[in-house]
Every structure is written in C-alpha cells, then in structure tokens.
Specification:
The structure holds 2 protein chains of 2 kinds.
Chain A (H helix, E strand, L loop, with lengths): L1 E3 H7 L6 H10 L3 E8 L13 E11 L7 E6 L6 E5 L12 E12 L3 E3 L8 E3 L3 E3 L2 E3 L1 E3 L2 H4 L10 E2 L9 H5 L1 E7 L10 H12 L22 E4 L7 E8 L8 H10 L6 H13 L4 E4 L7 E6 L5 E3 L5 E3 L11 E5 L2 E5 L3 E2 L11 E8 L2 H11 L4 H8 L6 H16 L2 E2 L4 E3 L8 E4 L1 H8 L5 H8 L5 E5 L4 E5 L10 H12 L20 H15 L3 E2 L5 E2 L1 H7 L22 E2 L4 H12 L4 E9 L17 E9 L16 H14 L6 E4 L6 E11 L2 E9 L1 H7 L6 E7 H7 L14 E10 L4 H12 L3 E10 L8 E10 L8 H19 L2 E2 L2
Parallel strand pairs in A: 14-17, 29-32
Antiparallel strand pairs in A: 1-13, 2-13, 3-4, 3-6, 4-5, 6-11, 6-12, 7-8, 9-10, 15-23, 15-24, 15-25, 16-23, 17-20, 18-19, 20-21, 21-22, 26-28, 27-28, 30-31, 32-33, 33-37, 34-35, 35-36, 36-37, 38-40, 38-41, 39-40
Chain B lengths: L2 H18 L3 H12 L4 H6 L10 H38 L17 H15 L3 E2 L5 E3 H4 L19 E2 L8 E3 L5 H10 L4 E10 L11 E11 L4 H16 L5 E8 L2 E10 L16 E10 L1 H6 L8 E7 L1 H9 L12 H4 L3
Parallel strand pairs in B: 1-5
Antiparallel strand pairs in B: 2-4, 3-4, 5-6, 6-10, 7-8, 8-9, 9-10
The chains are: A alpha+beta, B alpha+beta.
C-alpha cells in the first residue's frame, strides 16, 4: 500500500517527521518498507524552490527560424515575462493566437535547475544551461512530467490547473512523500488512507477527520428506479446502489491523478478515477456501471448458470463455470438479460463506463471473502478490489463510500444525484463482544494492567469498552472495521501493540522443563558429520529436487518417473522430481568442482523421498536419511612436500568408509563385489552388507557415468549409505584390558590364487592364530613374475601378546606352524617367508 | 724430579693436550692415555709405594686432586664438544620456516550445519529439544492445523510447491515452513509441557535469485506450558540474540502477523554491518529481521492437543542461511546449495 503523505494529512494531523512516523507505525505492526520522496528535500530529484516554479503562459508564438518550435512568454511572478523556446506539441494549438484569454499554467524551470533529461532512456539528470536555439536564447524551460520525475510522459509539457499559484515553488505545490507499507493479511483495515490515518490517530492521540461528503440529491428518488435482488445472501451480505445522471466524462483533476499515480494506479477518466480514489481512500471497493447498459436498472446477485459467458473489462471472454470459482460456481452481478460482472473481482465490458456514458449506477457491496478469493485465484488476477474483499471489508462502510463517491462525482463530473440509496442488507454485521480480564492479559502478554488501563489502550482503536464485574473485566465490542478480531488472543495483541511491544518486560520461562529426551538420529548425524569432516571431506547440501535427465545420467535404470514424487507445479525442469538418491545432485557438484580444482572430496547427509505403497495409512512419503560421498582427483594436495602425483581410487573411498564404521564401532561389515550396477566400474565396486542387510554401495564410477556427467578425473568414487540402518548398528566403545607383557611380532608372506579375497585370507589367519593374535596388518600386496600368473603374494604383520605372561619362542613357532598349515589346507596358500 | 713435580707436570701437560682436542675420538684417546687403567696417571701412581710413609698421605691427596681436576676437565670438554657437534647438526638441519607446512586434510562442515549447531547449543541450554518432521506434507499439516483453512488469504504468504497425487488422495506439498512441526511436537507431548526446536529444509515456489531460494532451512521453536507469556518469548529471544550476536545487542520487537500466532511479532536486531545508521544490507532501516514469532494461536494449541485456557506457549521461526549470510556477509543465497568447495571451504 502506497500512501501519499499529503492525502494522509487530510485525515489526521501529523507532527512527527516522516521517519518518526514510519518507525512508530512499524513498531505498531504496519511495516513501512520504504519512503519515496517526490520533488521535496531528499528526493532523487529535489525541485529547487528558487528555480522550478509555477509559470503562467501568456502567449505562444511561432519560432521565427524553426517550424517545429514555438516561443512561449511565461510570467513566473518575477515582473517581466520570460520567453521560453519549446517544441511541446500541446502548445501548438495556442500558437499565434495573441495574448491568451485564459493563460495556461505550466512548470517553469530557470537556468541552473536540475531536471531529468526528457530524451534520455531511464532517469538521467541534467542541469539546465542557457544556449541559443535557432538564433533565439533559450535559458529556461517549460517542463514535461518526465523532466520532473512525475511519470514517463514526455509528449508535451505538464499543464497545471488554472488556479495554480503563479511564482510558487513547484515543490510546495506538487512535492510529496509516499510511504510504502507492507500490509499483512490481518491489517486489511490499513488498505486505505482512512485506515492508516485511524492507526496514526490511535497512536498519537490526534483526532481523525472525515473528508468532504456533501451531496446535493437533486434528482428524483432512486427508489423504484433501481432494483437490487440478492439471491445469495450468504455470499453477498450487503449491496447498496445509487444513481447519478448527467455526468460528463473527461480527465480527472490533476490532484486526483497525482494521488492515484503516487498510490500506484493509472488515471483513466474522471469516473473510473473517482471509483479508484474512493477505494484507496476509504477501503471500500465499488463499481460504476453505465446505467443505460443495465437492463431495467435491475441488478441481480446470483451464481452463474450453465452455459453463461462474460467478456470482462480486459476483453477476455470467460466460461462462467465452476473452474472460474475454484470449484464453486462464480458469483455474478447480473441484469435480467444476463451477467454484467464477476462480483467484487472484475467488471464486464458491456456495462463499462464509456466516453458516452451519462448515467452512472454506483455499486458498493460487501462480498464473502472465500468466493472472491477463489474467483481471483482462478482468474490469476488479483485486482485492488478483490484484494480488499478477500481480506474482509467493513459491513458498515458502503453508505460512506457511496456518499464520498457521489460527492466527488458531482463536484468533478457534474450531474444530479438521485435521492436516497438502495440498501439491501440481508446479513447485518454481528458485533463481536468479548470480556477481557487483566488476568488473561497477564497470562498471555505478561504485563499487569488494570481493567481501566486496558480499556484506555483499546478505546482509541475504536473498541467500545465497558468495565464490568466491578472493574474485574472489560467488555469489549469490536468496531465493524475490525473483522480480524474474533477472540481474546486478538484483543491481547491489540493491548500489547498499543502498550508497545518494547515496553513489555523480559522474563525467562519459569514453568516445568520438558521430559528429557534422547535423539539418536541427530546424535548420529552430528558424529558422522564430524568424522567425515575430520577425514577431509567437505560437507555439501544440494537440492532435494532433480530431473529425470540428471537421474538417468547417473543410472538410466533409475530413471523410471513412476517411482518418483513429481511436483505439480515445478519452477524449472531441472527441479521437477523429489530425489530418491543423493548421488545425481552430489555427483553434479563433484563434476562442477573438478572444473576448478584437482582434488575434491564431498559428502552430504540428506533425505530421500520414497513413495509409499498404495493404500498406506500415511499419505506422506518415507523420508529416510542417506549419506553420500563423492571424491576424485589427487590423493594429496599439490605441494612442495610430496612429489606424489597419484590419484585417489577405490581404496581411498573404502578407507574413509572403514574409518567411519570403525569409529561408530560397527564391526563385521562385508564388502561384497558389485559387478552389475550400471553406476559403477564392474571390478571396483562393493555392496556393504551386515547380517544380510544392505547398508549401501561404494565404488568407482563407471566411465560411462563420468562421461555423461563430464567428470574430468581419471577415476571418480562414490558411495551411498543408508544412515538409518547404520544408526541401528552403532555400538558403544568397549574397553579391553591392556596387557603389561611384551608383544612378539611375526611377518608372514604367502602366495595364494588371486581369486581368493584378501578378507578370506585374513579370516583364515585369524582362525588359526587364536586368541593371542593382537593385530593383523596387511602391508604388501604383489602380483607379478616372481609369484607366477594367477597368483599374488600377500604379506602380513602379526602381533601376538598374552594378557598374563611373556610369550616364548616355542609358543609362537607352534602358532605360526598352525597358521601356515591352515592357510595351505583352507585356501591353498604357500608360504614365501 | 719428585713424584709431586712429575704429577704437576703431567697435570699441566694433560690439560694443555685437552685444550687442543676438537673431536670425540681424540677425546677418547686422551681419556685412555691419561685417565685409563694403563694411563699416565695410573702409571705414575705406582710410584706412591716407594715414598716414605709420612710423605704418602700428602702425595696421595695430590693424586686425588689431579684425577678430579682431569676428570672435571674431561667432562667440560665432552660437553663442549657435544654442544659444538649439535650446533653443526643444527646448521645442517636448518629450514626456511616460511615454507608452507604439511596440512592434514581436514574438511569443513557446511555453514548451515555450523549455524544449526550453534542454534541447537544455545537453545539446548534453555531446555529446547530437537525434533524432526516431514518435508513432504499434507495441506492439513502445512496450513489447516496452523489455522489456515482452505481459502485463507494468509496462504498467499507462502508460495507452495504441490506434489502430484492421484485424484481423491490427500493433497501433498513441500512444506513451506517448519511450522507443521509444531503440531508433531505438541501432539507427542500434550498435555505435558514441551520445548522443542524443529530444523529442516523448506521449499517455496519462488524464482531463485541472490536473495530467494526455492529451498532453504528453517528452525522452528516452540515452548508450551503453564504460565508462558509474551514476556517469556521476549526474554528467550533476547537471551538467544545475545548469545549469538553478543551481549548488549540492540533488539526490536514489532507487531506482525502469522496465522498461527496471536499476538505475532517480528524480531529485529540492530544492523551490525552499519551499526544502525542504515546500509544496503538492512535496506537503510538500521535493523535486520532475524526471526518471526508469537504466542501460539489458541486454535493451533487445540490442534496440538492442549487446552488453550490452561496452557499457553510461544513459537518462533528463523532462517539459518539468512543468519549465516548476515554473519559472513554472503551476498548470494544460491551458494548454499551449489556444493561448490570455493564456497564451502571458507567457513
């Protein structure tokens, strides 16, 4: 809501500075989002009061040396008239007519004045300099609206009303300040100048003034000449109509056009402008029909009938069916022949006020917010009117709107007003009456006020307050303009608001603490994040939404749209489906990063979204937490320390996963070769299993995937793990007594067929080594000529230790013997040393 | 020459020889030749027996002092040589300390995660527990139970992504705020008191710009119990802001509107970038909007399973990305979901 200060000041005296006013209102819940200054001090283009003044154009003459220029003699209150060279087309009709009988008023700018360049694109400032134009000195100007910053219009000069005071600074005449408010849905009453003024009056104690409402009812009575039938009283609680005859259509006066423009509306003609002006001023949307286009001057408020159509003001034709009412039939204002307008939302073209209109039928009604909202939504057009109706218009407002509009119509467009008003009011306003106690105010707001103090805070807002029960409570009657007030909490807010939120004391909750609660999934998340960051990975958060193309790039087999939740209204095709895996978005981040750096390690913890089976109790999808890892590039950051140029491979990823699982005390996870997952290299991927359940997958990405994702690295690794399954396996750490006796170390080098998994070799060693084996470390793997084709050598370090004694050589030799025999027997391994 | 004279001479000669020694090998030789079992001092001491009995004690004492003198000199020389050897080693081992060090690879947590943890920590101390709720929600939980029946004009405050469903099924949408979490936390606790925070991703049908993302985090907080008032809300939020932004930070409460709170409030802190004088970041207002809050609407309390006549409560919601943006001066929210390490490695 854009509120010109000059307009506001007609309703209430304001002694505060604009900034103070903005702050006061902001602190009272009407957030001022900005202050726009026009012509005054602080504006982008302040109008110099010395150099930009109102001038009177006395005579217009042809420029002797240029056909398209004229010379205007302008009196600007400084004695002799000043001659201005101008090409303004709107002065041409006055050319060489001698001294004008009725001088034109314009804006006269002298040399040195700062103006916007009328010919430039956008808003470019320039300073007026004297120079000869075709032989005649030009050191002053008559200004266009664009040059003053009033509008984009540079077609001709701005013509001011005849009564504009000659010589007065333009700043005093047209300068203004516009306050821009963010009006929240509960402040619908402030979608008007009157509403904002009422708030200011309540906050500052200044009285509220009502505007001029004088109407001369010089026409015959309206009764019997205009009829209103309401078929849907629940949707139209009140409908008023009046008639004004003999109006003259023309432009509205400059002051009205300026205010409409500043408020953000475009001036059209005097009738439409008055309609808009009154809506902005009082908050009561209204509609002006060309009365002669309304059959029998009979307005019927009803729902649409099958097959009906209407061409609205914007020249669009609509089928008036349930699609236009969001499932309800649209509500119409009709005449006996058919629809005239979409009630409260948009007028119809056929009954629109036109240049030939002489009789205006003025509708001011109150509509049900829901039907208005539905029609507005279906039309995808929220008009200024529907915006107000769907938030609730004061039931008691229509007569006031009628009088103000008629008063302006009569004054500006002439005509005679029919006596009286048709007022169909089937559902009168039921005032809300609430008993508010000091106890309730204390309970909700936390301040101690007496009933009388509460009443004093509420009364300036228009609430009727009576002390009841010997002053133990206040009986509050909400004014009709406060349709937002329905319960005690609403009144508590009003009390707090006017008392001042900043004056309410600070306290810390004194009530009981909630029952203690562990949150294992959060704790797991925190630990996993710390472990992975500690392991050198950066945490990413990517989009939950993805596309089938992105999914297919990682795994064409996953791109089955029927498995995915799809947005009904996606913003872009890239973010259309809810992800079922973190990999498409995380791998995309990996690819992007690899364009910038040689080494990238990322992880993400986030939800995936899995459709429930049909018929499930919960309509929401399952949202399990997943952990994904992605890495590629150099193993070590390039540095002067390490000439190591190696790149990361499967084992870098596996190592990270192993560390993670070890730190979570999860043992016994099997790495089962994964050879047929199209995402991964068939020889460098594994499924993680524990007791038959699959925890996730890890592997080197298939070259096809890297190609499709444009991953610029020789090898790229990825893993995706189910964090919920992992969480269920987390064990607490367990202490094992530390032996005081020395350890004995043995190295064992064996040769086995390459098909024998290392895990099996280790298991075999452990099996035969028994309880004295403290640790087993594989420290060399060799394949090559020395061991022969199809074989490989594995070298382990075994550390033995007993809890209660020093082991002797014979004991160790015996165990070693057992291991060697076991390896030969179980897996056909031979010992090299 | 008397034994004593010989001894004096030996001592003199030994000390002179010692002074010439510059390496440990020569020192060992010196030790053997003077102090060893077959060394000069031992050999000379054999002459003691030939002395008259009355001269023996004095000569014996002189031997002892000579041995002590040489041993001490040896010790000093040894220490000196070690010092010198170490000094040489140091010189050979010297590095340019301005060369870069060997950095262990340590990753970073996402700035949102870091902000969330700080929020958990501060509010945790005040008794708030972390709860979770779904991101894909029903219209009922995202709007209706929060006092926004169908056609409520306040629904315009949240542009919503809807999820395709088969006709007849419940409307599904991506939650536009974490506020539906209030209902879960209340229902899990009612009629007992609850203090909960609910972090998580939210979604808005909004064109993505430097200021607006279609996806963002929010942290919802609620406290419900007997005797919880607006003053408690203020106290809690000010304490929170002081922990996060420093003791004595200037705060402002201004009335606002949310359908699920009444009274509603917007909580601002003085712009710490310009100190309240007005800048681009605070849109020249001198204030930064930090969070929205209010007393939980009686209808919402009832929907959460509480009797609004007996208990009251407050709720608040904040945006960790926005808070991180303000803290670090981040000019574009899109970086948060880029996964770009140039961004992630700054925090």
């Amino acid at each position: 809501m854009r509120v010109p200060l000059s307009w506001l000041k007609e309703f209430v005296d304001i002694t505060l500075s604009v900034e103070e006013l903005a702050e006061r209102l902001t602190r009272a819940g009407l957030e001022c989002e900005g202050i726009e200054r026009i012509g005054v001090e602080g504006a982008d283009l302040p109008w110099d009061p010395e150099k930009i003044v109102i001038g009177s154009i006395l005579e217009v003459r042809q420029h002797p040396n240029a056909d398209r220029l004229v010379l205007a003699d302008v009196d600007y209150g400084a004695g002799a008239p000043h001659t201005v060279v101008t090409g303004a087309p709107n002065l041409f009709p006055y050319k060489d007519k001698g001294r004008l009988p009725q001088p034109l008023k314009g804006v006269f700018a002298r040399e040195g004045a700062e103006l916007y360049d009328g010919h430039a694109e956008g808003w470019v400032k320039m300073r007026l300099k004297g120079r000869p134009v075709r032989g005649i000195m030009s050191d002053a100007m008559l200004c266009s609206e664009k040059e003053l910053g009033l509008s984009e219009d540079h077609e001709g000069i701005l013509i001011l009303p005849d009564d504009a005071p000659v010589g007065a600074p333009l700043r005093d005449y047209l300068g203004d300040v516009v306050l821009k408010f963010d009006v929240l849905p509960n402040m619908a009453r402030c979608l008007s100048i009157l509403g904002v003024a009422r708030e200011i009056a309540a906050l500052t104690g200044s009285p509220l003034r009502m505007p001029e409402m004088t109407v001369v009812e010089d026409g015959p009575p309206v009764e019997g000449r205009v009829r209103v039938t309401i078929e849907e009283p629940d949707l139209c609680p009140r409908f008023t109509a009046t008639l004004i005859e003999g109006v003259t259509i023309g432009p509205s006066p400059l002051w009205m056009q300026r205010r409409l423009t500043m408020a953000g509306m475009r001036p059209i003609n005097n009738i439409v402008d008055i309609s808009n002006y009154v809506m902005l001023e009082l908050g009561g949307p209204n509609h002006m029909f060309d009365a002669d286009q309304v059959a029998d001057q009979h307005l019927i408020i009803r729902l649409a009938r099958p097959g009906e159509r209407l061409v609205t003001l914007d020249n669009k034709e609509h089928n008036l069916d349930a699609s236009l009412g969001g499932g309800m039939l649209p509500l119409l204002v009709c005449d006996p022949h058919g629809p005239l307008s979409l009630a409260g939302v948009m007028g119809g073209a056929s009954s629109e006020v036109s240049a030939t209109t002489t009789r205006v039928l003025l509708e001011v009604a109150v509509w049900d917010p829901t039907i208005i909202r539905r029609m507005g939504t279906a039309l995808r057009a929220r008009s200024e009117a529907s915006k107000r109706f769907e938030r609730g218009v004061d039931y008691e407002l229509p007569p006031l709107v009628q009088r103000r509009a008629l008063s302006l119509l009569q004054r500006i467009a002439g005509g005679s007003v029919a006596q009286g008003m048709v007022d169909n009011y089937p559902r009168p306003w039921q005032p809300v009456i609430l008993d508010l106690t000091p106890r309730e105010v204390r309970r909700i707001v936390g301040i101690s006020l007496s009933a009388a103090e509460i009443a004093d805070l509420l009364r300036p807002l228009g609430f009727a307050c009576d002390l009841i029960d010997n002053g133990a409570a206040v009986r509050v009657t909400a004014p009709s303009v406060r349709r937002d007030i329905t319960m005690l909490a609403d009144l508590c807010e009003e009390v707090a608001r006017i008392y001042g939120y900043d004056r309410i004391p600070l306290s810390l909750m004194a009530d009981a603490l909630p029952e203690p609660r562990n949150n294992p999934s959060l704790e797991l998340e925190l630990r996993v994040r710390d472990l992975l960051a500690g392991a050198g990975l950066d945490e990413a958060i990517t989009y939950s939404l993805t596309s089938m193309a992105a999914v297919a790039a990682v795994n064409p087999a996953d791109a089955d749209a029927s498995l995915y939740l799809r947005l009904a209204n996606p913003l872009t095709p890239e973010r259309e489906y809810l992800r079922r895996s973190l990999l498409p978005t995380l791998l995309d981040a990996l690819a992007q990063n690899l364009r910038e750096r040689e080494r990238v390690l990322l992880f993400e913890i986030g939800r995936v979204y899995l459709k429930r089976a049909p018929g499930s109790d919960d309509p929401r999808p399952a949202e399990p937490q997943r952990l994904a890892l992605a890495l590629a590039g150099r193993r070590y950051e390039r540095s002067w320390h390490t000439p190591d140029e190696t790149v990361m491979d499967f084992f870098d990823l596996k190592g990270i996963v192993e560390v993670l699982l070890t730190r979570l005390n999860i043992a016994g996870v099997q790495y089962v070769p994964l050879t047929d997952d199209p995402r991964f290299h068939p020889g460098r991927a594994a499924r993680l299993e524990r007791d038959g359940s699959v925890l996730g997958v890890i592997g080197e990405l298939h070259p096809d995937v890297c190609e499709r994702l444009a991953i610029a690295a020789p090898r790229a690794m990825a893993a995706e793990l189910d964090l919920e399954l992992i969480g269920a396996l987390v064990e607490s750490a367990r202490y094992r007594a530390i032996s005081r006796y020395p350890a004995t170390t043995q190295d064992l080098s064996l040769v086995a067929a390459v098909e024998v998994p290392a895990e099996r070799v280790a298991a075999t060693i452990r099996k035969y080594a028994g309880a004295l084996l403290e640790s087993l470390t594989l420290f060399d793997v060799y394949e090559g000529e020395q061991v022969g084709a199809g074989k490989r050598s594995l070298t382990y370090r075994l550390v033995f230790r007993a809890p209660d004694r020093t082991l002797n050589d014979a004991e160790i030799a015996k165990i070693r013997q057992k291991i060697v025999r076991g390896l030969e027997y179980d897996i056909g391994a031979t010992i090299r040393g | 020459m008397s034994l004593i004279d010989q001894l004096n001479q030996l001592e003199h000669e030994a000390l002179a020889a010692l002074a010439q020694i510059t390496d440990l090998t020569a020192l060992t030789e010196w030790k053997n030749s003077y102090l060893g079992k077959q060394g000069a001092l031992s050999r000379l001491s054999r002459g003691l027996g030939a002395l008259p009995a009355d001269a023996r004690p004095a000569a014996g004492a002189r031997f002892n002092t000579a041995r002590a003198t040489l041993e001490q000199a040896l010790e000093r020389a040894e220490a000196q040589l070690k010092r010198m050897a170490r000094q040489h080693a140091f010189e050979a081992d010297q590095v340019d300390v301005t060369l870069p060090g060997r950095a262990p690879a340590v990753g970073r947590l996402h700035p949102t995660t870091q902000m969330l943890r700080q929020i958990y920590a501060i509010l945790g101390e005040m008794g708030f527990q972390v709860w979770e709720s779904p991101e894909v929600e029903t219209d009922e939980f995202n709007f209706q139970l929060l006092n926004m029946p169908p056609d409520h004009p306040a629904r315009d405050m949240w542009d919503t992504f809807y999820v395709e469903t088969t006709p007849g099924d419940a409307t599904l949408l991506l939650r536009t705020h974490t506020s539906p979490g209030q209902i879960y936390a209340m229902r899990a606790n009612a009629p007992k008191p609850v203090r909960a925070i609910l972090p998580g991703k939210c979604y808005r049908y909004e064109q993505v710009t430097a200021r607006h993302e279609m996806q963002f985090y929010q942290v919802e907080g609620i406290a419900v119990g007997e005797q919880i008032s607006f003053a408690d809300l203020k106290g809690t939020l000010v304490a929170f802001a002081e922990r996060l932004y420093g003791k004595g930070v200037k705060t402002r409460f201004r009335p606002s509107y949310f359908p699920f709170t009444e009274p509603s409030v917007e909580f601002d802190i003085e712009c710490f970038l310009c100190g309240g004088t007005g800048c681009r970041v605070c849109k020249h207002s001198g204030w930064l909007e930090i969070l929205g809050a209010g007393m939980i609407h009686p209808t919402v309390l009832r929907n959460g399973g509480y009797d609004p006549e007996k208990v009251s409560g407050f709720a608040f919601g904040m945006g960790p990305e926005r808070m991180a943006m303000l803290r670090y001066g981040i000019d574009d929210i899109r970086w948060f979901f880029s996964g770009d390490e140039r961004f992630l490695q700054q925090f």
